[in-house]
Design goal:
Blueprint: H1 2-24, H2 31-50, H3 52-75, E1 105-108, E2 115-120, E3 123-129, E4 139-145, E5 150-154
Parallel strand pairs: 3-5
Antiparallel strand pairs: 1-2, 1-4, 2-3, 4-5
Length: 159
């Protein structure tokens, strides 16, 4: 009888630890979660095979221990050491806010296939080729400026 209780207690404690690891530390469904549910089912089934009263006591005790451990882990400051506390206070600057306008000239810093980097009026921006692929160090002229896109074409193309 004592051996049965020890086996039940071991199975349920391992199940609780694995399930809590799954919830708090391991992302997704991992072997810890699957193993935890298998250990829990095995412990409860073994407890009920030892007797109905032992099964009820084991089930209620394991739910209570799991609940207490879950609440304790949620309220403790043990996660504050690993939690991300950085605030993101930057914003994306619109190309229009940089003062780039149609007709401005520049040069490509990378290949535009069709999007890449260009320097327009001394400002490095994401540029988009109007139609074709443009190689690095190609002189370009700004065709239009959308909210976050600078559309360019080769400078030697006069339309």
């Amino acid at each position: 009888m004592i051996l049965d209780i020890a086996i039940i207690a071991f199975l349920l404690i391992v199940a609780i630890v694995l399930i809590l690891l799954e919830i708090f530390f391991l992302p997704g469904i991992t072997l810890a979660g699957i193993g935890g549910f298998i250990f829990a089912a095995g412990g409860i089934i073994f407890a009920y095979s030892a007797g109905t009263m032992i099964g009820h006591i084991s089930l209620i005790a394991s739910i209570l221990v799991f609940g207490i451990a879950f609440v304790w882990l949620m309220r403790s400051n043990s996660f504050s050491r690993v939690a991300l506390k950085t605030d993101i206070n930057s914003k994306l600057t619109s190309s229009r806010d940089l003062g780039i306008q149609s007709g401005d000239e520049g040069i490509t810093l990378s290949r535009l296939a069709p999007i890449g980097k260009a320097r327009i009026n001394g400002i490095n921006v994401e540029a988009k080729s109007e139609e074709e692929l443009l190689d690095e160090n190609t002189p370009v002229i700004v065709v239009r400026v959308d909210s976050y896109n600078v559309i360019v074409k080769p400078k030697d193309e006069q339309n």
